[in-house]
Amino acid sequence: MKRSEKNTVSLVGVGVIGRGWMRVFSSAGYRTQIYDENRLQVQGAMAWLEESLLQDIRDGLISPKEAEKCRKLIYVYDDFHQALAGADYVQESGPERLDLKQAIFAEMDRGSDSRTILASSTSGLDINAITKGIKGANRCIMAHPFNPPHVAPVVEILPTAKTAHSVTERTMNLLAEAGQKPVLLNCFIPGFLGNRIQAAVMREAIHLVEKGVAGVEAVDAVMSHGLGLRWALLGAFGVNNTNADGGVREYYHRYGEAYIGWLNDLDPNPPSFSPEMIEMIGRGVEHMEGEATVQEICTWRDRLVRKIVHLKEKDPHP
Ligand code: NAD
Question: I need a labelling partner for 110 at 20 to 30 A (CA). Which of 15, 202, 314, 315 fits?
């Protein structure tokens, strides 16, 4: 599938994630057909889309003409099957419940052309379980985005055991052409890559605060003014590669033993997430964030992350 062929994408479910996909695909020039069983959710998604386009115009990230092109590519359907008609690719973003996703996938399988790719945004379910017993499992795939997908472009891809190789390839190509960064997993693992890495970091961050080594603000400063800045450009291994003049091998030879010492010193147990622990972190975060509301912080975060993504595109990795 080439961009010039003007792919049609259908979105099933336009809540928090589905509405972000709306931005991704319509911005990339795809005809974007949307369906949600709750009409109010569609209205909410359209209002959100308008606000997010206007915000991007104000921030100089897109022109009014580009925003208008986006709006014109969105088609709202009241009928599930009509919404799937002519789609090259369907992105399901319904509720995170196995029985609901199984029902939606069975219906998508019955109601779409056999060439159409059926992808799920699931953040934790096994795509093999979602598509169990489905005739068209060979065209089903997991495409798990980060939130929101139009801001954080990475998408974790996991084919089912029956998925045709060509479907995986077409999915990766289509998402890449839509400006996303698809990454392929070889097998199912709870939490996939992102949530597992995040959990490993959060385990230690919480322990450091719980044990009184430092406060919430200090731990977050180490992330946002240190580790995170470099990770955003290079990733974990990429940063290790730059931490010694001779690259990652030299770095591991030199510091491997120190890492083993730190790793052995980490608390092997997960944090309790007890009410007391949550309260302690909650107070720390309130003190750090001051008067700003979560909504204000999210808007600022998304605006700056989008600028970083643009900057990386303009000044790419050598
Ligand atoms: P959400 O509750 O905001 O949206 C779900 C939408 O699905 C709702 O608008 C609902 O009306 C609609 N829906 C329910 N049944 C439907 C049906 N039969 N047909 C069509 N639409 C239907 O949830 P969300 O946060 O957008 O999550 C959607 C999916 O994305 C979940 O699988 C979730 O795990 C995954 N995900 C969420 C995040 C996140 O941070 N929110 C991140 C990555 C992936």
Answer: 15
What are the extents of the domains in the chain? Answer: 8-184, 194-314
Q: Of 84, 96, 122, 126, which is best to mutate to test ligand 1, by the most ligand atoms within 8 angstroms of its C-beta?
A: 96
How many angstroms separate the first and last alpha carbons of the chain? 29
Q: For position 6, what pLDDT does the model report?
A: 65
What number is the average pLDDT over the span 107-134?
97
268-303 b/e (C-beta count within 10 Å ≥ 16 → b): eeebeeeeeeeebbeebeeeeeeeeeeeeeeeeebe
> Cα dist. 49→15, 71, 179, 301 in Å?
12, 8, 18, 17
For 132, the 3-state DSSP assignment is: coil
Token pair in block for residue 119? 């992808």
Residue 185, token pair as written in the block: 């997993």
Question: Which residue's entry shows tokens 């960064």?
Answer: 181
Q: Is the model's pLDDT at 1 over the cut of 50? A: no
117: its two tokens: 């790719």
Residue 145 CA: which ligand 1 atom is closest?
43
Any idea what DSSP says for residue 3? Answer: G
Q: Is the pLDDT of residue 279 over 50?
A: yes
CB 177 within 8 A of CB 28: yes
> In the structure, which protein residues have their CB atom closer than 6 angstroms to any atom of ligand 1?
12-18, 35-38, 41, 93-96, 100, 104, 121-123, 144-145, 147
Torsion of CA 267, 270, 273, 274, to 10 degrees: -70
Q: For residue 94, how far is its CA from the centre of ligand 1 (angstroms)?
A: 4
The answer regarding whether domain 194-314 maps to CATH 1.10.1040.10 reads yes
Q: So what's the pLDDT on residue 59? A: 87
pTM score of the predicted model: 0.95
Name the CATH superfamily, with its identifier, for domain 8-184: NAD(P)-binding Rossmann-like Domain (3.40.50.720)
pLDDT of residue 152: 96
The count of other CB atoms within 10 Å of the CB of residue 99 is 9
Contact 157, 185 (CB under 8 A): yes
